[in-house]
Amino acid sequence: MLPDNANTSSYSRVSANLLPTNESSLNERRYRALFDHTNDAVFIIGMSGIHREVNQRACEMFGFTTAELLEMSVHDLVAPDEVPQSQDVREQLLQGVVMPIYERRFQRKDGSILIAEVNVALIRDQAGAPLYIQSILRDVTQRKQLEIERLEQERLRLELETERELNATKAELMVTIAHELRTPLALILLQRDVLDRYHAQLTDAQRHERLGIIRKQVYRLTEMLEDLSFLVKGTVNALELRPQVENVEVFVNAFILDFRQVVGLNRLIKTTFTGDLAQVNMECTFARRILTHLLLNAVKYSPEAATTRLDVTRVGDALQFVVRDQGIGILAEEQGHVFELFFRGSNAKGERGMGIGLSVVAQAVELYGGRIEVESQLDKGSTFTVTLPILGRTQNRDEDHLGSASLRG
């Protein structure tokens, strides 16, 4: 084995001894020319880790003189946080591992960081004993910097694109809200004017009919504003679950009574109740929003004479609400998008709406810690199944929900 302080000529003689005698001098000169003039830094490292030989490019790359580098260990050049990995490389080489080219961060004399591709190999003598480690470094700092800059530009481009999409969504939302608010407000004003001008001429039944229209439009406005508030609060984690003990059957029947006053008493909504529902800890506000939009969708997209079913079942420590309608159904390829904000089915464009109802349902279910599933056949109807955990103490979104949310279409 060569001593760590062997000079260049000693190294050259060993190299020559490994070649046929008549070729050794020529190959030594070729090696020396390559060693001295390559654009890569070349280090010959003794088994103790001290540099035994370096080329001029190594001096230029790191800012040290040849004399300085020959007094340094290979680990003196490696960035401090990568020294352990560098030591691992030596151990792997001794174990016979052939190292692929890898990247390593180094530190120049002025303290700046250099990134290099490293091609390292353990050189052995004819008997297989380790002689030295040959390490070839290619400076890729500029290339990596360009990659970082490119990635940063791509990040900024994506951020700008996202901001543009967000602004477009906001603009679309404002236009949609303005349009949706204008219709009920116009109807309220119209009915108020009729009542003001023709109050004496109208029969009690006619006055009651117009007051019913006003009540319905006020309910519609209230629901829209509450939906928007719900979505905004849910986005900023401002919603909090406040469960209370309820008789679920009483709660649902009272809700259906109010709901039918709005959508029309002629709408058929059949309810069934299964299991122990007398004393259940539940969040009524969230449950009401979920049922409101599922039933509104069922009624809106079904024939007036159709029956909508609401089946309520206690399943262990969970409540299951199943809403079935006989409506227009949802295209198979669109079922995975029904819970997206502003999404409206291609077969539902003729109906009024902002496309936020099912988004509210999805968000409420997620915050509740439940899950929602949808099954639908075109022109035959849809079935939405919501499973909500029976809640314990008061909890907010940041706390552990009883079950994980999953939205499956």
Salient structural properties:
alpha+beta, Beta-Lactamase, Helix Hairpins, Heat Shock Protein 90, 3 domains, five-stranded antiparallel β-sheet
Explain the layout of strands and helices:
Blueprint: H1 8-17, H2 21-37, E1 41-45, E2 51-54, H3 56-62, H4 66-70, H5 83-94, E3 102-107, E4 113-124, E5 130-139, H6 141-198, H7 204-235, E6 240-241, E7 244-246, H8 248-263, E8 268-274, E9 280-282, H9 284-300, E10 307-315, E11 318-324, H10 357-368, E12 371-377, E13 381-389, E14 395-396, E15 406-408
Parallel strand pairs: 8-10, 12-15
Antiparallel strand pairs: 1-2, 1-5, 3-4, 4-5, 6-14, 7-9, 10-11, 11-13, 12-13
Can you give a write-up of this model?
The chain is an alpha+beta fold and 409 residues long. It folds into 3 domains: 8-139, Beta-Lactamase; 157-234, Helix Hairpins, CATH 1.10.287.130; 239-408, Heat Shock Protein 90. It is built from 10 helices and 15 strands. It has a 6-stranded mixed β-sheet with strand order 8-10-11-13-12-15, covered by helices on one side. Helix 1 (8-17) packs across helix 2, helix 6 (141-198) packs antiparallel against helix 7 and helix 9 runs antiparallel to helix 10. The protein is elongated and about 120 Å long.
- Overall spatial form: elongated
Overall tally of domains: 3
The quaternary structure here is single chain
Mean pLDDT: 82
What letter string, H or E per element, gives the SSE order?
Answer: HHEEHHHEEEHHEEHEEHEEHEEEE
Helical/strand content category: alpha+beta
The CATH architecture of the largest domain: 2-Layer Sandwich
The Cα radius of gyration reads: 38 Å
Main beta sheet = 6 strands, mixed
Question: What is the C-level CATH assignment of the largest domain?
Answer: Alpha Beta
Q: So how many helices?
A: 10
Helix content: 40-55%
Question: What is CATH's topology name of the largest domain?
Answer: Heat Shock Protein 90
Q: Report strand order across the widest sheet.
A: 8-10-11-13-12-15
Q: At the fourth CATH level, what is the homologous superfamily of the largest domain?
A: Histidine kinase-like ATPase, C-terminal domain
